[in-house]
Description:
- The chain is of the alpha/beta class.
- It has nine helices and ten strands.
- Strands 6-7-8-3-9-10 form a six-stranded mixed beta sheet, sandwiched between helices.
- Helix 5 (121-133) packs across helix 6 (149-162) and helix 6 runs parallel beside helix 7.
- Adenosine-5'-triphosphate binds at residues 11-12, 16, 18, 36, 38-44.
Amino acid sequence: MIKVSHLKKSVDGNKKQVLRGITTQFEQGEIIGVVGPSGSGKSTLLRCLALRESWNGGEYSWDGNQIIKGGGKGSQKYRSKCAYLEQNPSLYPDKTALKNVLIGQVGQTSFLRRITGMVRSDDYMGAMDELEKFGLLDKAHVKAGKLSGGERQRVAICRALVHGAGFIAADEPVVGLDPQSAERVLNTLRSLCSEQGKTVVAALPIELAERYCTRIWGLYEGELKLDVSGRRLTAEEKRSIDLV
Ligand SMILES: Nc1ncnc2c1ncn2[C@@H]1O[C@H](COP(=O)(O)OP(=O)(O)OP(=O)(O)O)[C@@H](O)[C@H]1O
């Protein structure tokens, strides 16, 4: 179980409080959609949960192991278990899909590995297996700069998994994708949760959160106002977070 208590995050030299004491808990295997108006703190929440930003206050624990106490960013050991997927995944455009998967993501894999590109042969096999599972085997040797948006997003997911991510925070992962590619990416994320026990928290438009997620969090002005499982939001709930 992942527990978040009183997560606080300020920016701009502590002048602006973006997250105002978020408390929640969730289980392995859940896929949670985060919805809320622009500026409500969705991206900041995802970056904090993925240990990509330092917390100004609060506690974070995974299966009873304390990762953050009173603020901070957690250790590299836990950072490597979290992946942060951006709208436009930052892949190396001149390196192949395979190489991108092997080298890993900034924040998740070591600096040395990224600059040297050092890999073991079992890493290579693991990466090829993972690319195959995502229907990307024929793209393994194509440069990332030549892939479509949906393929790039799936390479980024693959990269996260190869480097041991159990928890994936995805920030609007299907923005700009055509409906089929978006569906493929979201089905991929959903099956990672239901079949492999991974945990996903994704900022999504409300209709996609309702369709693909098992649970929805509604954020409003840095507070978790809604937490709904297994159903759509009512019109009243949508109004309460300014999403009508
Ligand atoms: N580094 C920063 N410096 C100053 N303000 C910031 C910083 N990061 C976030 N903010 C502000 O914090 C608020 C929340 O930002 P965040 O990007 O988390 O919101 P969001 O809900 O993801 O918005 P959107 O849906 O538009 O992407 C916004 O008002 C934003 O301008």
